[in-house]
Amino acid sequence: MPTLNLYGDSLHGEWTLTSPQHPQIHTRCSLPGDIHSALLEANLIPDPYFACNEQQVQWVGESEWHLSRTFTLSAHELSASRLLLGLTFVDTMATVWVNGQEVLQCHNMFRRFEADILPWVMAGENQIQIRLLRNDAEAAERASRLPFPIPWAQGNNQIPHMNLLRKTQCHAGWDWGICLLVSGVYGEISLEPVFAVQPLQVRTEQEWRADGSCRLHVDCTYQVDKENVPLVAQVTLLSPTFSAQGSRQENSQHQVEQIHLEFPPQPCGEGRFRHRIDIAHPQRWWPAGYGPQPLYTLQVAFIDVSAPDTDAPITARNKLIEKRIGLRQLELITEDDAIGSSMLFRVNGQAITAKGANWITLDALPSRHTPERYRRLLEDAVAANMNMLRVWGGGMYEQDIFYDLCDELGLLVWQDLMFSCALYPSTPEFLLDVEHEVRYQVQRLADHPSLALWCGDNEVIGAIGWYPESREQRVKYTVNYDRLNRLLAEVVEQEDPSRRFWASSPCNGELDFGDAWHDDNRGDMHFWDVWHSGKSFDAYHSVKPRFCSEFGFQSWPSLPTVKSFAEPDEWNITSPTFEQHQKNGRGNSIITEMITRYFRFPISLEQQLYLSQVQQALAIKTAAEYWRAYKNHCRGILFWQLNDCWPVSSWSSIEYSGRWKLLHHHARHFFAPLMATFIHEPFAHEPNAQGQPMLTLHLVNDRHATQSLHGEVLQLSWQGDVLQRWPLTCTAAPDSSAPIWQIPLPERNPSNASGSPNASESEARRGFYHVVLHPASPNHQANERFENSFYPDEFKRLPLQPAQIEYCISGDDQGSYIELWSQHPALFVHVEYSGEGRFEDAGFTLLPEAIGGRRRLRFIGSASCAELAAGVKVYDLRSTY
C-alpha cells in the first residue's frame, strides 16, 4: 500500500481500490477523486461519455468500494492531545476504519466529518480504509421507512429516491445529465495533531460608517487542549497590494494592521475572541463591470509559546487561518412599487443589473473538477460580460476554488441550498442532518464577497403541484415543505444575518406560495413557455420579469464535440448515440420543430448543428435584450445554463469541451455594459399620430457614468445597398435605458389568403435595419463599437443572397487573425476552428465590403496560421441551404 510521512499534511494521493462484489479488481485510485475515474484510468470500464457506454457502467454505482492506504506516525505526533481525521465531500454513505476499528460514519456529501483517532493509532505504520457503501440501496431502504411517500424527480432521476440522500441530485441523471451514480472523496482528507490549541473558525463582519470608513470585526473561535498554557494570537490584515510568501513579507508594501493578543492561561475547552480593525479608506470590492475587485488578506495565527521551536516562522510552528476578504456593502432590495414589488441587488449603494447564467456541476466525474477548468469557465463567464452565476440546487455546494475565483473575478453568486425539483422529508433525523449541513456551509462561505444570496431550493414549492400524492393532499405536503424551509431560513439567519434568505426559486417573496412561473410583477421568475410550451420567441416580449433566474433554449453541440462521443456512422440527429446524448425527452423534436418555424431546413449535419446554435442564441438574445431595455422593471437576467457536465445536447452556452456556442458569443454583446437593441411591437415607445406600430432603438447603459456615442442606423437591401441612413448622436445617462430612434413599421403578419404580399412582407423584401455606434470620446479604442440588427420577418421568408464570404489568415507579434469580407450581407457569421481555441467574435452580421463591412478577428489560442488555415470553417445563414 502507498505510505505517507505525515506532519501537517494530508492523506491525498494514491490509495488502493477494491470491491467485495468484484474480488478481481485491485487497482489504484487517486484521492480526492471518484471510483468511476479510477476504473476508467485502469481500463476496467469504457469511457462512459462515449457512444452508449452509459448503460455499460451502471454496475459501478450498484457496488460497494473500499479505499485503503497506510500512513506513518512518529512518537512526537502521538504526544499530541488529539489526532483529528477530517473529511469533506465524502460521497455519500461511508464508514472509515483505522487499524481495523470503525472510527467514523459519513452520510452527507455536504458536511465535514471529523474524528479523533488517537486511541487507535500507533508509532510507525498504520492502516486506514474508507468503505463506500451503496447509495442506491440506502435510498431504497430509507424510502421503506418513511411515514408517508415523498415523491422524487422521476422525470430527471433514473435511480429512485435520491431526494432522501444528501447527495448531488443530478448524479442519478437529469434532463441534461448522464446517470453516473459516482462515489468517492472529493475534498479534504487530513490528519491534524493538536497539541495546545486548535483554531476552529474565523468570521468577519463589516460595519460601514457614514464617513465611508469600514470597521472590520474579526471573530475567532478556538479549542484549548492544554491547560495553563499562555496563548498568543496574531491578527494581520494585508492590503490588496500587499504580497506575502510564507514568512517572507514584501516590505515595499504595507500592512493595514498587525496585532499580538496575549491571553492568560485558559482552561481546556472552547474559547473565543473578537477584534476590530478600523480601515479609514477601504478599497471597495465591486461586481465585474462596475469596478475593481480588491481583496484583503486576513491572517489569524495562534502561537504556542510553550513549543520548543519558538524561533521557527509562525506558519511553520503554529496554527494559521488565512482568508481573502472583500470590503463591500450588498443588499437585496424588494420594495413595493406601482407594478408589484422590485427585486434588485444594490452594491456599495449602487443598483446592479445582474447578468449571467445558471451553473451546474462542473463534470459528472468529480475527479475532473480541476482548478484549471474552474478558472477557464469562470473567466469565460466574465468574458461574456456576466456578473452573476446561480449555483443551482440540484448540484453541489462548490469547492473553495470556485468561490475564490468568483471573488477574484467579480462574479456574484446566487447560492441555492441543495434541494431541487422533488419533495423532501421533514423527519427529525433528516432535519437534524440538514441543519448541520447548512450551518457548516454557511460558516464556510459567508466571508466571500461574491456571495450575494442564500436561496432555499430550486422549484420545490412548485413541485408540490407536480406529483399525484402531493396534489391530492396539498396541505399536508405544504406543511411538510414549510417545516424544512423554515429550518433553512432560521439557520441562515443565525449564521449570516448580513444576507437575505430567499425561500425558493422561483418565488414571489417571503411566505408567498404563488405562481412565480407566470407572475412577472414580483420576485424571481422561471420563464419556460418558449421551450416547454412551444411558444414563439415573441413570447419573451409578453413578460417583463422583475428578476428572471431561469429561461433557456437548447441547441446541439458543435461537430468537433460530436466527434468526441460518436463514431462517424452515428453522426445523425436520430442515431442511437445522438439520442443517448439528448436527455430531454422532447429535446430533438423541439429544436427541429422550431427550426422549421423560423428557418429553411438545412440538409447536412454540420449545418443542422450550426443552425441549432443560431436558433438558441436568437431565442436568448430576444429575451435578454427586451428585458434589459425595460431595466427599471427587470434587474436580473440569468439564463439556463452556462456549462455542461458531459458532452450532450443541452441549454448550455459553453460545451463540455470548453467551446463557446454561438449563444456565449451573443451574450458578450447582449450583456455588454452598453447595448443598443431594436424593439418592434405595437406602441413600443409612443405610437405616432396614426397609431402605427413602431420600430424603436433603445440604448441601455449599465455604467454609472454618462456615455456619449455617435453612429448611424442603416436600412440595407439584401444585396447590401444602403436604402436609408439616419445619423445618430446620443447621450446615455448613468444606469439607464431610453429610446434614441424610432420609425413606424408594420406588424409582422402571415401572407394573406390571396398570396399577395402584405405590408410587413413588402418591408421584409426590401431589406433589414442595422445600427453601429462608437463612443464619442477621441481616445476610445478603434475596435470599440456596438452593433445590432433587426430583421422584419422570419428568416425562412427573407430573400437572402449568397454572401460570397472570402477570408485570409495572417499573424504578427500580437497573435493570429482572420479577416473576412463579403459581397452581400452575411447573417450569423461563425468561424469555427476544429482544434483548441476560438475567435474573439461569432454570430455577427457581416456587411458587404463595399460599405466598409470587412471584419478582422483575433484568434484566442496557440494554433499557428498554418494550423488555422487547415482547420477553419466559416458558416453563415444563407450557406445552410
From TrEMBL:
Recorded superkingdom: Bacteria
Beta-mannosidase Ig-fold domain ranges (all copies): 800-879
InterPro entries noted in UniProt: Beta-gal/glucu_dom_sf (IPR036156), Beta-mannosidase-like_N2 (IPR054593), Beta-mannosidase_GH2 (IPR050887), Beta-mannosidase_Ig (IPR041625), Galactose-bd-like_sf (IPR008979), GH (IPR017853), Ig-like_fold (IPR013783)
Keywords per UniProt: Glycoprotein, Glycosidase, Hydrolase
EC number(s) reported in the record: 3.2.1.25
Pfam families xref list: Glyco_hydro_2_N2, Ig_mannosidase
Catalytic activity entry: Hydrolysis of terminal, non-reducing beta-D-mannose residues in beta-D-mannosides
Any one GO molecular-function label of the UniProt entry: beta-mannosidase activity
GO biological process: glycoprotein catabolic process
Domain (Beta-mannosidase-like galactose-binding): residue spans on this chain: 15-186
Record keyword rRNA-binding present: no
Gene3D superfamilies per UniProt: Galactose-binding domain-like (2.60.120.260), Glycosidases (3.20.20.80), Immunoglobulins (2.60.40.10)
Protein name: beta-mannosidase
